[in-house]
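Hi everyone, sorry if this is the wrong subforum. Our group has a chain we'd like a structural model of before ordering constructs, and none of us has done structure prediction before. Sequence below.
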Amino acid sequence: MSARDEILARVREAIAPASPSDRQVPRDYRTRTEDGIDRFIERLHHYQARTQRIAAGRLEKGVRATLADRGVHRVLAPDGIPDGWLKNLERLTDTPPLDPPALDGVDGVITTCALAIAQTGTIILDGSAGMGRRALSLVPDYHLCVVRADQIVGSVPEAIAKLDATRPLTFISGPSATVDIEMVRVGGVHGPRRLEVIIAE
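Answer:
Right subforum, don't worry. Here is the predicted structure as tokens:
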């Protein structure tokens, strides 16, 4: 066998489809936890996000008060956000889609979520009603997310089992932050500098 033939044989072996037995992955890891709202809040605080717990019946008033307290007057709200949440505020919609300068010019964005993970303090957006396209939650400097208590699951495997993998999923664990080579933390590099989560119970 020539050197060329040997190399090609090795390439064919490396890229050959794996047999079914080779693709089996152990699934005996823990898939559920008892983590709940308290752990979710603890993780969010670790990421320097702000949180509030509000009774579902007071949600409309609570959202308006929160936005007012944060100085949000021009708010970006995707389709599916109730009008009552934004009473007396200037509401911007994404129909037709806003360009990046317009997204950057709003005071903040408000969304709901598809799910939240208590163990990691993560909220998940999937682009459906109340969430809109991914850019809406990445460009504005302030993001207020409303999470229903029944949307909080304990672990990542629980969340993955409930999510629609064909949706454009965005996992958010705290405000945007990065650290440079000198370990200086910088916010707002690839998302909002300020994240606030309202948990509706």
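For your construct planning: The radius of gyration is 22 Å. Residues 3-15 form the longest helix (13 residues).
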